[in-house]
């Protein structure tokens, strides 16, 4: 599968009926205004100039409840993107939205466009956690949205979070298991980070919210990622995505600029730890096996991992390492 190139377009809090405790999209994205067509053109051209290949480009609307906006606004952005698709510059449209804003009327609109992926912000499959997090939806909305997307064969992905108010390991593992029962194509999973000007910041200052430590978050996310990848779904992102100055908006919690690398390092650690005998691994995966700041160096020595130029995939499978899958996760 060739690399996908994403043009992200931020519509901060567009269509949001409530403010989730962890969210301040102005703080998280650094953008305050909604782009008009000429701004969209500029964003499009700028990103296109960064891409080494221009034939696998997707436009993605983030930072909002996309389908919660007024219908005219939804169509405005979808029409813009569809024109780019019709002109041959892009292949599909993605957007993030909240489950209560997926209904029959919205599905009818979406059917007129080349929607590649609907990213559904579920965050948790526990009612109490949803309530404490001030999410705009309940579990019924979640299951209804999933059913509608599945019935209408619209590809979708689910967003999950760890460390939300009222959440714990068992609840999060249950959320992952519920996710695996769906036809979701992708999963995003990230820990709760306290950002400036959020409800969570106030709760944190009053000591009513204690974030996970970085170590706890990495261990949980890597464990869940292994479960998800084993099921055949793809984890498209670990950790929160913040750019440049926005990192200064982090008040507390498990934020790390290399969170994804820490998770991948821990995934490898867990897989190696389970091996019972010496295993050969393709040398091209050596940096990934050593992991972030060579944290896995010791366990690699202990478990006698041998790096070789060519390693037969079947050999890896026999030894309990699915090298094909690992390449997809690590490279
Ligand atoms: S629905 Fe999404 S964008 Fe809106 S406040 Fe909640 S997390 Fe933020």
Automatic annotation (TrEMBL):
CDD domains: Radical_SAM (cd01335). GO terms for molecular function: 4 iron, 4 sulfur cluster binding; catalytic activity; metal ion binding. Pfam families: Radical_SAM, Radical_SAM_C. Residues 1-237 form the Radical SAM core domain. The keyword NAD does not apply. GO terms for biological process: tRNA wobble base 5-methoxycarbonylmethyl-2-thiouridinylation. It comes from the Bacteria. GO terms for cellular component: cytoplasm. Keywords: 4Fe-4S, Iron, Iron-sulfur, Metal-binding, S-adenosyl-L-methionine. Its cofactor is [4Fe-4S] cluster. PANTHER family: ELONGATOR COMPLEX PROTEIN 3, HISTONE ACETYLTRANSFERASE-RELATED. This is Radical_SAM C-terminal domain-containing protein.
């Amino acid at each position: 599968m060739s690399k996908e190139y994403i043009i992200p377009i931020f519509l901060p809090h567009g269509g949001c009926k409530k403010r989730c405790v962890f969210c301040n999209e102005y703080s998280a994205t650094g953008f305050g205004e909604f782009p008009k067509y000429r701004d969209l053109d500029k964003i499009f051209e700028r990103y296109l100039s960064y891409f080494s290949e221009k034939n696998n480009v997707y436009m993605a609307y983030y930072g909002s409840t996309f389908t919660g906006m007024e219908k005219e606004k939804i169509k405005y952005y979808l029409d813009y993107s569809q024109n780019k698709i019709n002109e041959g510059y892009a292949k599909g449209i993605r957007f993030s939205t909240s489950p209560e804003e997926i209904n029959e009327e919205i599905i009818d609109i979406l059917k007129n466009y080349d929607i590649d992926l609907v990213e559904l912000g579920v965050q948790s499959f526990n009612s109490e956690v949803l309530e404490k997090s001030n999410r705009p939806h309940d579990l019924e909305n979640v299951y209804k949205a999933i059913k509608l997307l599945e019935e209408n064969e619209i590809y979708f992905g689910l967003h999950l979070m760890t460390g939300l108010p009222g959440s714990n390991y068992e609840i999060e593992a249950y959320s992952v298991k519920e996710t695996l029962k769906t036809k979701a194509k992708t999963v995003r999973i990230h820990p709760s980070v306290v950002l400036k000007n959020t409800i969570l910041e106030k709760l944190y200052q009053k000591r009513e919210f204690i974030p996970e430590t970085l170590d706890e978050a990495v261990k949980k996310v890597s464990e869940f990622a292994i479960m998800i990848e084993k099921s055949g779904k793809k984890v498209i992102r670990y950790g929160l995505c913040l750019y440049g100055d926005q990192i200064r908006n982090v008040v507390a919690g498990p934020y790390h600029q290399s969170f994804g690398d820490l998770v991948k390092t821990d995934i490898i650690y867990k897989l190696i730890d389970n091996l019972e005998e010496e295993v050969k691994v393709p040398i091209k995966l050596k940096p990934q096996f050593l992991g972030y700041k060579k944290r896995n160096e010791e366990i690699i020595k202990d478990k006698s991992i041998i790096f070789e130029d060519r390693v037969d995939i079947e050999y890896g499978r026999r030894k309990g390492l699915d090298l094909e899958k690992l390449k997809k996760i690590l490279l």
